Model the fold of this input.
Amino acid sequence: MVWLVATLGACAVIAPRPAETQAQCPVIVQRAIAVRGGPIFNLRRGTEMRVNFGFPGTWHFEYVFRAPQTYLWTVFTTGEPNHYSWDGSTMRAAVGPIIVGSDTSGKAPLRSHARWHAVTYLDSLCEASIPARFRSLPTSAGGEIVVLVTLTDDDSRYRLTFDRHARLREARGPIEIPPFGKARLTQHYFDFRFADGFLIAHGTRYEIDGMPLSEERTTSFVANDAAIDRLLPISGPSE
Done:
């Protein structure tokens, strides 16, 4: 948005402006980390998701994340669980303990999931673990603050909206997920309650390219536990 600054001194004083693009972590992001209970270095979260289309039905997932970008997504099925991991350079897929595929191209779809977690859990942004630029938009009448995040290594762009209590209420950004391919994901966060000492959203509504995709409920949450690191990355015999 381009802001017109009037030549008259009085108008220049009252004209609102967005903050300049900056490299340092915005104050609202630092506040959000403090409000939720502090930094999260790793986490393990179980969920139940009701999916509307693509793969409709009720699914059970587990997400494991270690900052800045190590990630494991488990899909529970009627047979062996399916695991998909990203260690920063390689994506691996496994059925139960057996690794059935890998991708070392650096462009694997799961990379976008790991980066989504890095951005929305915030700590990697403030620790400069991933190269980023920030731009804060003017505070809305309702007290919401929007931060635009650009990851400078690939120019991927995210929009984070925080409420007046410094809780992250909405995130938008790029994702790659079957069967949709590359798409624009929006997450709406609600039902904030404490779990393992952290104030987290227990409810998430997903939109994919503006269409309501699913609603997810958190069923378990553990953070900052050394045992979590032993789950990452997945390893085992190949098929």
Observations:
- The chain has one domain: 20-229.
- The helical segments are 9-14, 27-36, 110-120, 123-126, 226-229.
